[in-house]
Amino acid sequence: MRTSAAPARFRAAALASHCLTLGLLAVAAPMARSQGAPAGDAGRPNASRAELTTLATQAEAAASTGGTPEVRATKQREAAAIRWRLVHGDFEVGDRIVLVVPGDSALTDTFTVAAGRTLQFSKLPPLALDTVLRSELHEQLAKSIGRFLKDTLFQATPLIRFGVLGEVARPGYYRLSTEASISDALMAAGGPTSHADLPSTIVRRGSRKVMSKSALRDAMVAGSTLDQIGLGAGDELVVAGKKERVGWAVATQIAAVATGVLISLRSLR
To answer: How far, in Å, CA of 171 to CA of 186, rounded?
Structure first.
């Protein structure tokens, strides 16, 4: 499908529509993912098939040749998670994809992946996503849309469910683009509260911390995207709260009470 011949006004309309859509992406949603995928680091959300194949091969080699039993087990889980992506794709029922097609209001919308992991359109045949990676979405859509609409410029943005928890105004799970930054994720949840301790913020994957505090701070300063730092669906940004300091007046009262208890015990003896 050719896109370079699209009129400039279509490009401007696409950009404006896309920006407007991205402003509406942060819609809170409960977490609901497939339980079939094995646990483990599975590479960047937007990684290509070639990149994932290389990562899987490297993880399998590391799992069979070196390191402690714990390291080998970790590499086995990583390899299994990556192989799962390569076979089953990235999309699950309930995932959402923002599609912007200038001049076509029927196709410019946020679409939800339906049963059978298909994308349903109002006037086009459904698109099967059961083996499609996020990095392959644009190509698959181009093939599907290109059979019916020629010389069309379009943008497709897959969203992931990402948790923003802790000391933020509206903690919960949000549907965000993988091109969103950590700051974007914080703002989607209403921003940090007055009790937030941003330098102590962490990222969790299940019960495991996947980014150090210093690495997360560097990513926030650099404006790195979720994809660039390898964060994906189900990961959680947890904003820590400031530790309450005991004031001098309270400390004095506690000390006085403790002293009184000690004196009473000595008197009883």
So the answer is: 9
Residues 6+ apart with CB under 8 A from 61: none
b/e burial code for range 7-38 (CB count within 10 A of at least 16 → b)? eeebeebbeebbeebbeebbeeeeeeeeeebe
CA nearest neighbour of 241 among 167, 186, 183:
167
- Go through the chain and tell me how many residues it has: 269
176: left (phi over 0), alpha (psi -120 to 50) or beta: beta
204 φ, ψ (degrees, to nearest 5) = -110, 150
> Cα separation of 262 and 48, whole Å?
69
- The pair of structure tokens assigned to 54 is 């290389």
Query: Beta-strand (E) ranges in 15-91?
Result: none
Contact 178, 46 (CB under 8 A): yes
Q: What is the pLDDT of residues 215-268, one digit of tens each?
A: 899 999 999 999 999 888 889 999 999 876 545 555 566 556 556 555 555 665
Pairing relationship of beta strands 118-119 and 127-128 according to DSSP bridges: antiparallel
227 contacts 46 by C-beta, under 8 angstroms: yes
